[in-house]
Amino acid sequence: MPPAALSLDDLRRYAVARTLFTPTTLPAAIRRLGFVQADPIRAPARAQDLILRHRVADYRAGDLEARYPRLQVDEDCLVNYGFLPREHLALMHPREPRRPWDAETQRKADDVLAFVRERRLVHPREVELHFAHGRRQNPWGGAGNLATHLLDGLHYRGLLRVKRRDSGTRVYEVAAHPPADESPAGRARRAAALIDLVVRTYAPLPAASLTYLVRLLGYGAPHLSAHTQTALRLAREHLASATLDGTTWYWPADENPRSRRWAVDDRLRLLAPFDPIVWDRRRFTLLWDWTYKFEAYTPPAQRQFGYYALPMLWGDRVIGWANVAGQAGGGAPLVGYADAAAARDRTASMLLDEEMARLRHFLLPR
Predict the structure, then answer these.
(1) CB 56 within 8 A of CB 25
(2) How many CB atoms lie within 10 A of CB 249?
(3) Which of 90, 88, 312, 54 is nearest to 200 (CA)?
(4) Measured between alpha carbons, how far apart are the two ends of the chain, in Å?
């Protein structure tokens, strides 16, 4: 009897189970995830903390920031800004920005780099006070300190790294990266490794999402864009794939979405908007048949879900969303349901109460 064909139910279960592994240590979880997207909004906690709390045993909000200086982890760019194991930096550095600085900005950046090298550890306020560079217009029309812009730019170029944060502000030191193989073959290997990294972070991926992720690698590795496009064509040949209802899906060749190893429990979880399970909005709609939107930057009158709606995962179904900022201390979350049956299910209500209790514990300071 031939094996049953892959179904959307298999992909849903696989998408959830492969990234919701048994909670482990903080370093092991970051290594297993490959990349943890960061976001500064706290509603009720930063995205990186909300992502890690489901994957790290006894995790509390702020643990990553507190332990970061002792971890082999770096803040850097991949497809977005976030945290990744230090060994992945060699795939992207030395990074070559698409737009080089003009001569005057480069001179100021060189002076800032020399200042950090001399001081060894520098807070942006020290740079601002020492150089008095003033302010500059940012891409959103506002004004920001030129010192911050220069430090961000040096960090992006791989010349500085974030040593730690003081009350959320990055404190920098000079970075050192091993020499990279810049031959065409070396660049091709790094491009292929970057695609493997994002596939393992976000699989299973619809074909259009895989293409989109590779395009986003232009943020983390703009100088490898031509190589990542070539590597994408090769990846499509070597990744496992299947076509369901006209959509081709890709995942690592050494994984089988129909395997019994991808088991899900019946716990209800509130996910960060950037959690790997829900990050890809195209995949979200295909797997759960409704559209979720992140609306923190949407005018209040136009919001459908709320300022910081957390997708509500029950088993392998995303049944709705909850806004908990202000309610996590004891009030009832503001909940919306995409699944009418779940809205009436008393078990779902009980499991949400349990999840809110876990969330309140996660928010307690150590």
Answers:
(1) yes
(2) 25
(3) 88
(4) 56
Q: Is the peptide bond before 299 cis (omega within 30 degrees of 0)?
A: no
The 10s digit of each residue's pLDDT in 277-308 is 999 999 999 999 999 999 999 999 999 999 99
Q: Tell whether pTM > 0.85.
A: yes
Nearest to 337 by CA among 312, 316, 315: 312
* CA 242 vs CA 7, 28, 239: distances in Å: 10, 30, 10
Please say whether the beta carbons of 102 and 95 come within 8 A: no
Q: Which of 181, 197, 192 has the alpha carbon at shortest distance from 33?
A: 197
In this structure, what token pair is assigned to residue 103? 């001569």
Residues 6+ apart with CB under 8 A from 235: 192, 195, 196, 199, 210, 250
Task: List, for residues 189-200, the tens digit of each pLDDT value.
Answer: 999 999 999 999
> Residue 347 corresponds to which tokens in the numbers above?
């078990």
Cα atoms in the Cβ-side hemisphere of radius 13 Å centred on 11? 26
Stated length of the chain: 366
- Amino acid present at 235: A
